[in-house]
Amino acid sequence: MSNLFNKRRQRHFMMLLKYWRLVFNDHFVIALFFLFGALAYGYAQWLPQLGPHLWWSRWLLVAWFTVLAQVGRLATLVERPDPVFLLPMVGHMQRYLRQAGRYSLALGELMTLAGAFVALPFALTTERLTMVDVVSIFLVAMLAKDSWLRLAQGMISQQWGQRRQWLHLAQWLLPLVVAMVTWLVNPLWGLVLVIAIGANVDYFFSPTKLTIDWRAAVKMEDDRMYSVYRFFNLFTDVPKVQGNVKRRPWANGLIRRLTVPGHPWSYLYARGLLRNTDISGIVIRLTLLAMVVAFVVPITWLNSALVVLFIYLIASQLMPLFDQFDGNVFTHLYPVPFAQRRADFSRLLVRVTALVAALIILASLGMILNWRQFGVNLVLAVIEVVLLTRLYFRARIKKLSEES
């Protein structure tokens, strides 16, 4: 069973490497370099402005370490045919799950240590910590992650399979209680508590005492891999990611706001924008990324340049929506002049671009409410939106109209 897991792990690495080469290309690596550099610079500039014993600092650390325990899931690498072909070897699956637990623990602890190192400068700035406290905090985070993975192993066992919801709740409550004791009482007491919890969790959820629930194990691994494939699908086509059709009632109000009554193409474009996950997804992701960058970058000229750049990038992503329905023969039967279609599309572009620009400008206020930076970005955004809607959009729509 150990050889089986090692072979699957090697095959899993080769699959990830194939997609990593496509995702982390030169352009994306350069973008990440500037993004993390801006975040690190903004973080370093923000820390000196903080004082000791802020009322919210400890609660922020509690929330950070609670969420940090959820990063890094149990990777069993179980496949769908396993319940049939490995059923005679079910008695030896404890050795397989032990290997999977060690592999998942190694990856999870690396991410936990990275997250703890990120929070350490903030903790040292706002709290008076000794070296013993710092070591205790790192041990608490690592032991809490180990207990989290033990609970995950219990969720795919026949003994605890009927209590998955309770175990999932415990995966949040236990790190929360440990983090509260660590930061609100004392790190040493948090270490004592997490050791006691870990001993009990290890006793009840040891792989040697659990019998695998094949359906639960296959479903958990499929869900984990689907989340990985969805991340890769943001950058390249992944055959294993299939679109799901489902109703989105929350979008009805947004469609009504983007639609002009009596204009069928206006309704069609608004609905197409929200239903097309490629266009709406990249617009939402770029908007959130732009808000984060505008929020953390303290340099005024760099912040303004990034705001202008992101607004242009987001606006340019909306243009493929114009000819999205040309392949549908029924849309050509609409008794609507082509000029009205162009006007409806232009109106949608103006509304979406203005909304995106407003969100990014609000985020540029930052933590310290830099109104000067906000005013500069507001003026630049208004000018850019006017230029885009009056010149760029019209030129692009005219070009697309001639091509179609």
TrEMBL record:
The chain crosses the membrane at residues 54-71, 103-124, 130-151, 172-199, 282-315, 348-368, 374-393. The keyword Membrane applies. Keywords: Membrane, Transmembrane, Transmembrane helix. It comes from the Bacteria. Coiled coil: none annotated. The keyword Transmembrane helix applies. This is ABC transporter permease. The lineage of its organism: Bacteria, Bacillati, Bacillota, Bacilli, Lactobacillales.
